[in-house]
Amino acid sequence: MFTSSEISEIQKLLTPSHKIVIITHYNPDGDAVGSSLGLKHFLKQKGLEADVIVPNDFPKFLKWMPEAKQIIIADYKRKQAGEAIYNADVIFVLDFNASHRSGNLVGPWLEKARAKKILIDHHQQPDAFDYVYSDVTIPATSQMIYHFIQELNEENLVNKDIAECLYTGIMTDTGGFRFRSTSATTHRIVANLIEKGADPAMITSNTWDTNTVSRLHLLALILSRIEVVKDGKVAILWLKREELKEFGFQKGDTEGFVNYGLSIMGTQVAAFFMEDLYDDFIKISFRSKEDVDVNQFSRKYFNGGGHINAAGGKYMKTIEETIVDFKEKIEQEDF
C-alpha cells in the first residue's frame, strides 16, 4: 500500500483544479474497466472529474456498467485522448505494470506526460512511477481500489455505482471467486460492496450470461479438438483467423475459453492460441493450477507475462509453428 506520507501527498493532488485521467491496459478486461470506472465514480463522489481512457475497444458485456459509454477509446478518438493525457495533472495507471502495456498509441503519450503518475496494479515487476501501489498477492486491481479508498478513510463515499464497478472487476479477475488468490479479505470487501448496492445476480447476468450463437459455435469448435499433452497435464486449445471470421467473431467472444482446458481432470496448465484477426501474430492465454508459474513461462518463451496462474503472450510465428514450439518448451518444464 502507499505510505501514509504518500497518501497525504496524493490527497493534495486530488483537487478540483487538477485535471485527472485514468488509463488502463490494451485489450481492457473486466478488472481494467471495473477498477477504472470504480475509481472515476469515487472521484466524482469527492467532487472531482476524471476522464477514463482505454487504448482500444472493450467487450460489449462490460458496457452496462455506469458511465461505460463515457469512456474515451483512444483508437476511435485519438485527438481527444491525446489532449487529455497531455493536459493531465494526475494520471492513474490501473491494472498494468509498464507503459508499453497500454499499446503503441497510448504508451508513448503516457511516458511523455508531465502529470504525476499513480500506479495501482497487481502484476509482477512494475515500472517506476511517481507513486506505486503494487501487490501481486491481491487478485484484482478493483480490490486494490477499495483498499485505496480505505486508506483515504473515505469508505463512506462508496455508493451503488462504485460498488457495481468494483464488484464486476473482482468477480471477473477471480474467475467468479474461484482462483487461489481469492482471500477472506476479498470476500469481506465483496460483502461490503453488496451492502453498498452491488447486485450479484444482476452483475453476473449482465457480464457472463451473454452468449451469442456465434460464440457458442466457436466454443463447440474449440472443444471438439482440444488436445492434452505432457501425460495429461497440459491442455491445448486454438482458433484460426478464418474460423473467427466464419462465425462472426466479436471482441470478448473467446473470454474464458482457456478455462475449459484447465477444467479437465488431471490438467495443471491450459494454453489457448488464437490468430489475431488483422495482424500476423498469435495471441496466447495461459492458465495454471497451484504453484505452476505460467507468468515466468510466458516471459521466458512467449513475450508475455501476468500472474503465477494467469498470463498472456504474443508470438510472431504461424499458429502451427507456435503450437509445435509450445509443445517442445512445455516438455522442458518440471511439474
Automatic annotation (TrEMBL):
Ranges where the DHHA1 domain occurs: 233-332
The stretch of residues making up the signal peptide is none
Molecular function GO labels: 3'(2'),5'-bisphosphate nucleotidase activity
The answer to whether keyword Transferase applies is no
Pfam families, per the entry? DHH, DHHA1
Keywords, A to Z? Hydrolase
Enzyme Commission number(s) from the entry: 3.1.3.7
Instruction: Quote the InterPro entries the UniProt record gives.
Output: DDH_dom, DHH_sf, DHHA1_dom, Oligoribo/pAp-PDE_c-di-AMP_PDE
**Per the record's keyword annotation, is Hydrolase included, yes or no?**
yes
Annotated ranges, domain DDH? 19-170
PANTHER family reported in the protein's UniProt record: BIFUNCTIONAL OLIGORIBONUCLEASE AND PAP PHOSPHATASE NRNA
The molecule here is called Bifunctional oligoribonuclease/PAP phosphatase NrnA
